[in-house]
Every structure is written in structure tokens, then in C-alpha cells.
């Protein structure tokens, strides 16, 4: 895997959804990462469009990615297609929630 993408994913793993208690990568909220020489764009979703923590989670994601992006411009895009569902949880996430 591209080392920049790896560092972006690592940074996003620090962003925890406070209602679920898992990071956005484990939950399956990160749909795409586009890396260009001068920018990084992340397409991600939330568990629901009306998530009360949505704006905070998106802001935390932008801060985390910016920390790993250096001087690149960072864009976090909220997307709703496909809608998130629990099947998108990683296996480790499913196991942690089952405890």
C-alpha cells in the first residue's frame, strides 16, 4: 500500500465516534482516499445523515488527515451513497461491539 495512504488511514484510526466507541476506519465510514501532489480528499460517511456528532467527527477527521498530509490541502467529503450499515464494520469492530 502507498505509504501516504497508510499514514492517512493511521491518522483516521485516531478519530473515534463517541457514540459507538470505535474509530471511523473500523466502523467502515471511510469510503475513498484520493491522493494528489498538492491535495488529499477523503470520502466518508456517517452512520446516519442526522448523526448529532457528524460535524464534530468530520472536523476531527480533517484535523487528523491534515496532521498526516503535510502541506497538502485536505478535503473531507461526506457522502451518503452507499448508506452505511453494520455490515461495513470490520471483523475486529464486530468482535469489540459484541463484548
What would you note in describing this structure?
This protein is of the alpha+beta class. The protein has four helices and five strands; from the N terminus they run αββαββαβα. Strands 3-4-5 form a three-stranded mixed beta sheet. Strand 1 and strand 2 (22-23) form a beta hairpin. It is globular.
How are strands sequenced across the largest beta sheet?
Answer: 3-4-5
Indicate the overall shape.
globular
The CATH class, by name, is Alpha Beta
* DSSP, total strands: 5
Give the radius of gyration. Answer: 13 Å
Counting DSSP H or I runs of 4 or more residues, the number of helices is 4
The CATH superfamily bears the name: Fe-S cluster assembly (FSCA)
Helix % is 25-40%
Ends apart, CA distance between termini: 31 Å
CATH topology: GMP Synthetase, Chain A, domain 3
Q: Give the overall average pLDDT.
A: 94
Percent of residues in beta strands = 15-25%
Tell me which CATH architecture applies here.
Answer: 2-Layer Sandwich
**Count of spatially separate domains:** 1
Briefly say what this structure is.
The protein has four helices and five strands; from the N terminus they run αββαββαβα. The protein is of the alpha+beta class and 99 residues long.
Task: Output the keywords.
two-stranded antiparallel sheet, 38% helix, three-stranded mixed β-sheet, 4 helices, 99 residues, globular, GMP Synthetase, Chain A, domain 3, 23% strand, alpha+beta
Amino acid at each position: 500500500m502507498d505509504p501516504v495512504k497508510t499514514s492517512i488511514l493511521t491518522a483516521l484510526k485516531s478519530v473515534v465516534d463517541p457514540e459507538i466507541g470505535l474509530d471511523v476506519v473500523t466502523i467502515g465510514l471511510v469510503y475513498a482516499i484520493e491522493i494528489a501532489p498538492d491535495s488529499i480528499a477523503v470520502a466518508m460517511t456517517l452512520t446516519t445523515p442526522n448523526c448529532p456528532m457528524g460535524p464534530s467527527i468530520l472536523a476531527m477527521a480533517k484535523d487528523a488527515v491534515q496532521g498526516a498530509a503535510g502541506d497538502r490541502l485536505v478535503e473531507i467529503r461526506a457522502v451518503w451513497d452507499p448508506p452505511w450499515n453494520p455490515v461495513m464494520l470490520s471483523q475486529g469492530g464486530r468482535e469489540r461491539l459484541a463484548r
